[in-house]
Amino acid sequence: MPETENQKEKWYASWFDTKYYHILYKDRDYTEAQHFMDNLTQYLNLPENAKILDLACGKGRHSIYLNSLGYNVTGADLSENSIKEASKFSNETLHFKVHDMRETCEEKYDAIFNLFTSFGYFESDDDNLTTLKAIHNSLNQTGFACIDFMNVDYVIENLVPEEVKTVEGIDFHIKRYVKDNHIFKEIDFEADGEKHHYTEKVQALRLEDFEKMMEEAGIFLLDVFGNYKLQKFFKNQSERLIMIFK
Q1: Is the pLDDT of residue 2 over 70?
Q2: By the 8 A CB rule, do 239 and 154 touch?
């Protein structure tokens, strides 16, 4: 990959658009994800036919599930390939669009979900704040938003420095490390007669970082949970950092 500044910043645009990304992560636990969405929608007590925005929806699996619960769902993602795939499942109450999460939506929603650590990929701190403001401004007056992020302290404590994952005959060599307040994942593999190398990096944002940004954005943080069962958040023990705000 050419190391121009623009392309370095947009690593997520290229990696998330490849078929290899979807191969590597195809065995994610979707049952757990569905329980989470059941718990979340019940906790928020969303009205019937509530309008939900699934922000950074990927290929739309969670949007499809939320739609099956009876909600009017829009899935939005930066990846054109993912939206093209997801759009095959569109119906009258399920829509998909290419959208940059830094931009406020014209439509206003009852709930906006940003699930499974789909935040913190930007190079600039300003972009994080811009995204939070955009989410806030895309809610209707009674709407709620949820960001489901990793719990950085738990992740760092349990980081697996190196492993090989074999999926569909591809050996993915994965290295993980912490540097410059980011958690890095280097992924190397050979496929289709070529060597491939991708780097995922996510900002190591903790609850206090989100609190600071939310205060600046005029956002009201209502609740913080530490797992998909919506149990209390403990800084060193919880697997997730789930924030409900308006």
Answers
A1: no
A2: yes
Q: So what's the pLDDT on residue 1? A: 40
Sheet of strand 240-245, all strands in order from the earlier edge strand to the far edge: 94-98, 72-77, 51-55, 109-114, 139-150, 240-245, 221-225
Listing DSSP states for 161-219 in one string gives -EEEEEETTEEEEEEEEEETTEEEEEEEEEETTEEEEEEEEEE---HHHHHHHHHHHT-
Query: Which residue bears the tokens 């956002």?
Result: 219
CA distances (Å), origin 13, targets 21, 22, 185: 11, 13, 16
94 Cβ neighbours under 8 A, 6+ residues apart = 63, 64, 67, 72, 73, 74, 75
The beta-carbon contacts of 189-193 under 8 Å, at least 24 apart in sequence, are 189/20, 191/20
Q: Exposed, middle or buried: residue 40 (CB in 10 Å: 0-12, 13-18, 19+)?
A: buried
Q: Which residues contact 127 (CB under 8 A, 6 or more apart)?
A: 102
**In this structure, are residues 52 and 72 in contact, taking their beta carbons and an 8 Å threshold?**
yes
Helix, strand or coil, per DSSP, at residue 239: coil
Residue identified by tokens 């994965």 is 174
pLDDT at 7: 43
Residue 116 DSSP code: S
